């Protein structure tokens, strides 16, 4: 692997936790407290995450992976470590709002203000990825986007100011991590800026603060081209996600994270880059023991049983009232591990005189617990496809084979859609593959009906898929007489049934200007012209949404009219999640009723 040489210093600051810290390596014993998780859960978690790639001063070389590293840390904290997204302040180059871009005035104001939110027992974490410098007097500076290398006193962000803000912060747990002096930015004739270790030394005696630095004084932090990340931050994130939880207590503590990054960074730098990079840490005398950095989930359920052969039983009949059995129909089972994969063939069989076919299937451990199954029945030129959302828990199915030349089968798929790879998420008869409050959701005449006409609903209700989906084309027909509803996608569902994430808005009133809503945060992501929308939306009649998600781009079409074309530039929101149908709480819309049908999806590779 070819190495890149860097100038200046790329810093990654983690201010987080300090009441229960650990000693410097080799200086005193590490004591572990068995109540780490309890103490971590008692307080709130705050984070400031900063990344700077591009600098205005031509004397300061640009960097490549600082913004990516900052976004990685932000997503890791929000999705895997117990930090609430609205308590993570993300300041990076590509933020749309000016106050969230890493200019000097923003760093001085935003960091100080954010740290003041913390109370005793809270956890505070700050991440900074960008250049760092020392002036002629040895004063250390972090470099904001508008920093001038020849005028650090006026344009740099003094490390002393950051230290003062941390000392004044009331949080009982604080950690600072510095990832500095990245290889890859040096120009010919330039000398490397201060290392993480040199900058971290400025915090050596900061009361209540543990400092973790990415490399020693004589080393540089390596960029990992293959991963498009900094080497240190790559393993830092992996450690926080749970790989550093050596004692398997569902908590990553400060000592575990240091030991994990020390081992992985040092070894990988030698093997992959033929270089030396050794993370170091600084712990003041008042910090004793270790403290929790991340709260992770460890599965309490036993692992799935080993792969075993099962027998799937299908009865193929002609569609219609008589339902005569179909003999010699070929029935094929297909499987896709992910929503963006094309299904692969699993097994097949042929029906006998009573329409019955038994197909032995041997499933792997993964196939028993994840992925999706389809079944196709073919006979004399007729071919129908159905999804099997509850397989292999259920193993017996009736298949109504359509012999009519109608454009759609009983599951709302046109023949053209089947050929394109669409599958139905709703079988027209049951809520198999969905989960929700059965008092509020029911199936009638091929429709899913959500109603609060006789029930008081104190919070929004959702009927959600049991699977998650990432890149896809989703088509849903819906009918609304009045009120407010929506279709969730790439959304997350909590244990109490609450759903957060993207929503295609369905509204007859004041929110007609909203196209894409961020459920759970009461935030409008994309607006539309309500007058143009009203021309296409038909009240109390069937309308159709087509929702297309491909990477960060989301398009929303209402009855073939392009309602929204949105690009997600934040990595705070997941690109994989459930699909859900919404009923709003009754204090907002009493006596609601909404209808859905013909719900079909096509995975995009």
List keywords for this structure.
605 residues, alpha+beta, eight-stranded antiparallel beta sheet, seven-stranded antiparallel beta sheet, 11 helices, 35 strands, 33% strand, elongated, disordered N terminus
Low-confidence stretches: 1-31, 185-191, 298-305, 404-410
DSSP summary, beta strand count: 35
End-to-end CA span: 30 Å
Instruction: Determine the strand fraction and express it as a percent band.
Output: 25-35%
Largest sheet: 8 strands, antiparallel
Rg result: 28 Å
> What structural class is derived from the secondary structure elements?
alpha+beta
Percent of residues in helices? 10-25%
**Mean pLDDT, all residues:** 81
Number of helical stretches of at least 4 residues = 11
Shape: elongated
What does this protein structure show overall?
This protein has 605 residues and is an alpha+beta fold. Helix content is 17%, strand content 33%. Strands 21, 23, 24, 26, 31, 32, 33 and 35 form an 8-stranded antiparallel sheet that branches. It has a 7-stranded antiparallel sheet with strand order 22-25-34-27-28-29-30, with no helix packed on it. Strand 15 and strand 16 (344-350) form a beta hairpin. The longest helix has 20 residues, at 254-273. It is elongated. The model is unreliable at 1-31, 185-191, 298-305 and 404-410 (pLDDT under 50).
């Amino acid at each position: 692997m070819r190495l890149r040489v860097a100038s200046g210093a790329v810093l990654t600051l983690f201010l987080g936790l300090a009441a229960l810290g650990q000693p410097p390596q080799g200086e005193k014993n590490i004591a572990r407290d068995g109540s780490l998780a309890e103490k971590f859960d008692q307080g709130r978690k705050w984070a400031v995450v900063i990344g700077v790639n591009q600098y205005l001063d031509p004397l300061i070389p640009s960097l490549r992976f600082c913004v990516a590293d900052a976004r990685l840390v932000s997503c890791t904290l929000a999705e895997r470590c117990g930090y609430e997204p609205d308590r993570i302040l993300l300041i990076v180059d590509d933020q749309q709002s000016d106050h969230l871009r890493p200019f000097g005035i923003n760093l001085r104001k935003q960091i100080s203000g954010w740290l003041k939110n913390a109370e005793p027992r809270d956890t505070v974490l700050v991440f900074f990825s960008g250049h760092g410098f020392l002036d002629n007097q040895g004063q250390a500076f972090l470099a904001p986007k508008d920093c001038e290398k020849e005028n650090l006193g006026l344009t740099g962000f003094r490390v002393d100011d950051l230290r003062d803000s941390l000392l004044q912060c009331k949080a009982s747990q604080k950690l600072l991590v510095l990832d500095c002096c990245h290889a890859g930015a040096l120009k010919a004739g330039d000398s490397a800026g201060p290392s993480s270790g040199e900058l971290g030394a400025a915090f050596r005696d900061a009361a209540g603060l543990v400092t973790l630095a990415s490399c020693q004084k004589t080393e540089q932090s390596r960029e990992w081209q293959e991963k498009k990340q900094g080497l240190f931050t790559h393993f830092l994130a992996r450690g926080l996600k749970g790989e550093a939880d050596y004692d398997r207590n569902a908590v990553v503590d400060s000592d575990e994270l240091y030991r994990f990054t020390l081992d992985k960074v040092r070894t990988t730098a030698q093997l992959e880059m033929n270089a030396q990079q050794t993370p170091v840490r600084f712990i003041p005398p008042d910090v004793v023991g270790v403290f929790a950095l991340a709260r992770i989930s460890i599965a309490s359920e036993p692992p799935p049983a080993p792969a075993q052969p099962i027998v799937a039983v299908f009865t193929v009949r002609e569609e219609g009232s008589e339902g005569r059995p179909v003999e010699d129909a070929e029935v094929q089972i297909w499987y896709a591990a992910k929503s963006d994969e094309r299904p692969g063939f699993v097994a097949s069989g042929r029906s006998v005189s009573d329409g019955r076919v038994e197909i032995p299937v041997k499933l792997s451990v993964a196939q028993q617990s994840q992925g999706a199954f389809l079944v196709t029945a073919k006979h004399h030129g007729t071919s129908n496809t159905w999804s099997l959302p509850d397989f292999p828990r259920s193993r017996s199915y009736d298949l109504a084979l359509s012999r009519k030349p109608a454009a759609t089968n009983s599951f709302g798929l046109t023949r053209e859609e089947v050929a394109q790879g669409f599958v139905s998420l709703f079988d027209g008869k049951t809520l198999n593959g969905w989960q929700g409050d059965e008092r509020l959701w029911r199936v009638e005449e091929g429709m899913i009906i959500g109603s609060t006409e006789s029930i008081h609903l104190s919070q929004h209700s959702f009927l959600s898929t049991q699977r998650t989906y990432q890149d896809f084309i989703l088509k849903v027909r819906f009918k609304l007489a009045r009120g407010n509803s929506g279709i969730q996608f790439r959304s997350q569902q909590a244990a109490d049934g609450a759903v957060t994430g993207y929503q295609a808005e369905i509204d007859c009133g004041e929110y007609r200007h909203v196209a894409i809503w961020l459920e759970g945060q009461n935030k409008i992501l994309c607006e539309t012209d309500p007058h143009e929308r009203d021309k296409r939306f038909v009240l109390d009649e069937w309308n159709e949404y087509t929702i297309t998600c491909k990477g960060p781009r989301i398009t929303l079409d209402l009855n073939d009219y392009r309602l929204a074309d949105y690009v997600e530039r934040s990595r705070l929101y997941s690109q994989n999640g459930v699909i859900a149908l919404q009923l709003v709480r009754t204090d907002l819309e009493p006596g609601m009723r909404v209808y859905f049908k013909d719900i079909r999806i096509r995975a995009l590779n």
